[in-house]
TrEMBL record:
Protein name per Swiss-Prot or TrEMBL: Ras-related protein RABF1
InterPro entries to which the protein is assigned, alphabetical: P-loop_NTPase, Small_GTP-bd, Small_GTPase
Keyword set includes Nucleotide-binding: yes
Pfam families, A to Z: Ras
Length: 168
């Protein structure tokens, strides 16, 4: 069992990433998350270890920020999401990383995810900048698209791998 929390600005695609992973779907009319929502999913790793995920998808809006510790405190893994077309969302991601470093469980696996990679024509956060930030903060880094499903499963695979085997 692996408790995983998604954090990041409202609108970056956290709920779409979870829906893509859990249901294999992308719904462009998906509803804004209120408070937080919970989903579970199992995944077989390459060595056939079965991992059961308990996923907390948080809201991101300022008015729910005070609730976030309820979801990340016990988490074994945190996926911090920004939108590659939004520098503000990248700034917000850095805020969440600092929060996790201060108040997250020791040894929490952190993954920085630049979502909406399909919108590369409107990119305004360079991959290299995010990669360097992630390295400095001992995080994994990936760019994803919940729309095309690019790298979505990889995000969820890498968390238990890092947690169980120290995989980087
Ligand atoms: P959340 O607030 O972080 O949970 O964001 P949502 O999952 O609700 O997504 C916000 C908006 O971004 C929705 O209109 C989605 O359709 C859109 N969206 C989410 N992921 C992607 C993606 O990978 N590519 C594109 N083009 N749009 C996305
Ligand atoms: Mg949401």
């Amino acid at each position: 069992m692996l408790q995983l929390v998604l954090l990041g600005d409202s609108g970056v695609g956290k709920s779409c990433i979870v829906l893509r992973f859990v249901r294999g779907q992308f719904d462009p009319t998906s509803k804004v998350t209120v408070g937080a929502s919970f989903l579970s999913q199992t995944l077989a790793l390459e060595d056939s270890t079965i991992v059961k995920f308990e996923i907390w998808d948080t809201a991101g809006q300022e008015r729910y920020a005070a609730l976030a510790p309820l979801y990340y405190r016990g988490a074994a893994a945190a996926v911090v999401v920004y939108d590659i077309t939004s520098p503000e969302s990248f700034k917000k991601a850095q805020y969440w990383v600092k929060e996790l470093q201060k108040h997250g469980s020791p040894g929490i696996v952190m993954v920085l995810v630049g979502n909406k990679a399909d919108l590369h024509e409107s990119r305004s956060v360079p991959s290299q900048e995010a990669q360097e930030y992630a390295e400095k903060n001992s995080m994994l880094f990936m760019e994803t698209s919940a729309k095309t499903s690019d790298n979505i499963n990889q995000v969820f695979e890498v968390c238990p791998l890092r947690r169980l085997f120290g995989f980087t």
